[in-house]
Amino acid sequence: METVLYIAASIALLALAAVFVYVAILLSSTKTLLGNVTGIVNSLVDEVKTVRMSLQGTITNLEGVVQKAQGTVEQVNQTIGRVNGLLDQVEGIMGSVRVITTDAARVITDGTDVVHSARNVVMSVIELEQDIQAKVQQPIVESMTLFSALGKGMHAFRTKLAGTNGHAKTDIYYK
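The structure assignment produced for this chain is given below.
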């Protein structure tokens, strides 16, 4: 039985040696694999460093842009404040224009009323003149016609009294 034990021990040692060889091969493969992984990790670390440096520049640029954006936003807010002030002024001006327009409309209406009143006065004066003319002109014309006829009659009478020379002896200018 000893031989069997030797054989079993030999097989066990051979198996153990095979395991060690296998482990050595596995470790060698693992070492190569770890070397490859280390290279890949190192290259990733280098890329991350490069990206980080690029991002650092980008972050710096973004900080500048953010600061400028904050300044721009403040300026926009100030501009909006000024625009709001201008809009308030425009609203005030529009209110004044409305008042002026209303006042102008009243003045125009009053002016139109004055013109109509003046036209009515002129029409009344014309009607009065025509009425006076109709009432007074005819009696005056009749009186003038009468005085003219009297004057012509007196002249004819004087002419008859005077004879042929045409001057009456009773004429006060010829005395």
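Interim note for the steering committee: The first helix runs from residue 2 to 162. The two ends are 215 Å apart (CA to CA).
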